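Quick one:
INPUT:
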């Protein structure tokens, strides 16, 4: 396994070992996801020095895929982010690849490109680890909240840096686009609004850096790395501001919240030790999916449910494929719907607690890492 700072890396490694695998870790900061000859040589040496069934990592690294292709060993990966810009690369056609993505829209896109071994696999949660944490935790009262949100507010986004270099027409167009997308749930209109004429004009103001083997284009890079994060900032700030007008709202973040006058900024929390305690002890946990995730259910939903928390999430197209609304969690279709449901479930304790308990039971039995990895192993 190539180890990097993916949140779910430890749970995946632990689950492989529970399934009886011996796992050898390799770690090195990559200079480039595409080309890093020092790391490539290190990886070749490890692969050739022992007998492995496959090389695995979270997300997708063209460099690792190419080394595996050269060495004739399966390369297996599972995404926790979407879209993976690193996948828009010639190496995605390597026949050793077994690529698992949690966003079905992205799976269909790559199948349409002719990528053979790409599969849909939703994300997971390690309830065993969470149970151990809760059994040994103290001072949980400090994590009690009515409504909480854990995550970035994306105030450090590249759109703000380039906004005033744009001509009035482009800036107005992008502002209108972001305003429209901000209030849409489960639908992404950004790609279709970046028309050829708009992209041609944008080329004068946005520098596209990509490698020789990259398949990415201006539409992909700008919509994901620039507009996607700016839209997320707008969505999250508006929701938190409006909710805080009538309810106690806490946010756990490193982001600046000076404009969120009624929102309590409780600082950042550690993913492993503290975040589950927030989810367990908050009456309502918000999930606000970044628009870059077009149809899939993000890891945060599984984190909340696995902690026994009540999850109120924006609608995503794949939610009904995996969960039952108002039984395992609750989703909203618009900001107004969110505000109404937040008020309702804050005042209906027994319903809220029953949904949280059912969600916890469901992910514990149906969404474990072991069961997901068994699906990977069958296809690998």
């Amino acid at each position: 396994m190539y180890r990097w700072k993916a949140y779910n890396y430890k749970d995946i490694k632990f689950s492989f070992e529970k399934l009886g695998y011996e796992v050898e870790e390799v770690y090195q900061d990559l200079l480039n996801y595409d080309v890093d000859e020092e790391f490539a040589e290190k990886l070749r040496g490890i692969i050739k020095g022992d007998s492995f069934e496959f090389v695995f990592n979270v997300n997708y690294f063209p460099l690792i895929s190419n080394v595996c292709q050269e060495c004739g060993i399966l390369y297996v990966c599972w995404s926790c982010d979407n879209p993976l810009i690193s996948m828009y690369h010639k190496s995605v056609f390597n026949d050793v690849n077994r690529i698992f993505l949690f966003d079905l829209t992205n799976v269909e896109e790559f199948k349409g490109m002719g990528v053979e071994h790409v599969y849909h696999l939703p994300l997971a949660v390690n309830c065993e680890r969470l149970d151990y944490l809760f059994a040994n935790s103290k001072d949980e009262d400090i994590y009690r909240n009515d409504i909480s949100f854990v995550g970035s507010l994306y105030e450090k986004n590249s759109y703000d840096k380039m906004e005033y270099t744009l001509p009035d027409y482009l800036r107005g167009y992008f502002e209108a686009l972001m305003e429209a997308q901000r209030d849409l749930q489960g639908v992404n209109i950004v790609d279709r609004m970046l028309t050829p004429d708009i992209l041609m004009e944008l080329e004068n103001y946005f520098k596209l850096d990509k490698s020789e083997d990259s398949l990415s284009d201006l539409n992909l890079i700008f919509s994901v790395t620039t507009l996607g994060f700016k839209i997320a900032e707008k969505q999250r700030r508006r929701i938190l501001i409006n909710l805080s007008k009538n309810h106690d709202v806490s946010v756990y973040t490193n982001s600046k919240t000076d404009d969120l006058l009624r929102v309590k900024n409780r600082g950042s929390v550690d993913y492993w030790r503290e975040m589950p305690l927030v989810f367990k002890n908050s009456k309502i946990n918000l999930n606000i999916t970044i628009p870059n995730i077009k149809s899939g259910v993000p890891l945060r939903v599984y984190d909340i449910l696995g902690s026994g928390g009540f999850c109120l999430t924006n609608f995503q197209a794949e939610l009904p494929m995996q969960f039952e609304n108002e039984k395992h969690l609750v989703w909203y279709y618009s900001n107004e719907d969110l505000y109404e449901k937040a008020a309702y479930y804050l005042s209906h304790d027994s319903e809220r607690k029953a949904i949280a308990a059912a969600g916890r039971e469901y992910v514990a039995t149906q969404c474990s890492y072991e069961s997901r990895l068994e699906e990977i192993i069958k296809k690998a």
